[in-house]
Amino acid sequence: MRALSSLRLDPAEGEDRPRVVVAVSGGADSLALAAATAHAASEIGIRPIATIVDHGLQPASTEVAQRAADAVRSLGLDAEVVSVVVDGGGGPEAAARSARYEALDDAAERWDASAVLLGHTLDDQAETVLLGLARGSGSGSLKGMAEVTGRLIRPFLSVRRSETRAAVAELGVEPWEDPHNTDDSFARVRVRTRVLPVLEAELGPGIAEALARTAEQAREDAEAFDEMIEEFIEEICEPAEAGLSVDVGPLSANPAALRHRIIRLVARGEFGVSLSRTHTLAIAALVTDWHGQGPVDVPGIRVSRNGRRLHFAAAESGATLLE
């Protein structure tokens, strides 16, 4: 109940109440979310339906999905099982995640849902922050997962995994134990079972909570910073042929952190591209170390300098990309 107070939906009654999709895997976290949603649905004015995604990656996955649906129905929610084909790139974990989110997005469209609820917990947040730091993702990794991203809502980001397990045990519901959650070939599993316990043992309890607090503070700072930068970008950018032109003067006059963030925001906002640090620094060199060199090609974008303007355009086919 407490965790769902973050929902911000237009109040209505009866059939006019907004639909909400609850993502359920059959694990303790998602079953606890389903139970909390069923309990709070009338109070917060929603009509929930649980969507169980069958990835088809494990033996008896269909039976597991059906058991999850039965468990959800016993908690008082309607449920559906959606089968997907996992065949994307980026490794099996990333491909499964992409297929799952696509299925949830389709479910939201099919049910005309205002929100999709996800069962990520405080522990998931802590793991996400540590993984981001280990990958060298910069300050952006400290933000972790947002409580609200579009219509995706994570009401349990302040709830420990131990609490969700205790909740389903009290309800008498048997959660599914995903074997992938104990497979240490996955980096997230190693963080969960090895890294965090060592940090707790060596630095004292409360590491997961501290990481989650750090994520929340970093997200607040980043959102405020990005909002100010977006206003600044409007002043120094103008439309150009097949792209955007940026005034070099303000870029060179500002600190590197601001300059790099502007470059990343332009790339993401105009072209939907997330730049690595290597790519960002290469583009920034056109501002701070320009001696007539040619354009920089990164995935999806070609950036060139013409006098006092930096020109961002969609990458030409066949361009040699900066690795």
TrEMBL record:
Catalysed conversion reaction: cytidine(34) in tRNA(Ile2) + L-lysine + ATP = lysidine(34) in tRNA(Ile2) + AMP + diphosphate + H(+)
GO biological process: tRNA modification
Coiled-coil spans in chain: 208-235
Entry keyword set: ATP-binding, Coiled coil, Cytoplasm, Ligase, Nucleotide-binding, tRNA processing
Pfam families in the record: ATP_bind_3, TilS
Gene Ontology CC: cytoplasm
Gene Ontology MF terms: ATP binding; tRNA(Ile)-lysidine synthase activity
Enzyme Commission designation: 6.3.4.19
Domain tRNA(Ile)-lysidine/2-thiocytidine synthase N-terminal, chain residue ranges per copy: 20-193
Family the entry assigns: Belongs to the tRNA(Ile)-lysidine synthase family.
The protein's name in its UniProt record: tRNA(Ile)-lysidine synthase
Species for this entry: Labedella gwakjiensis
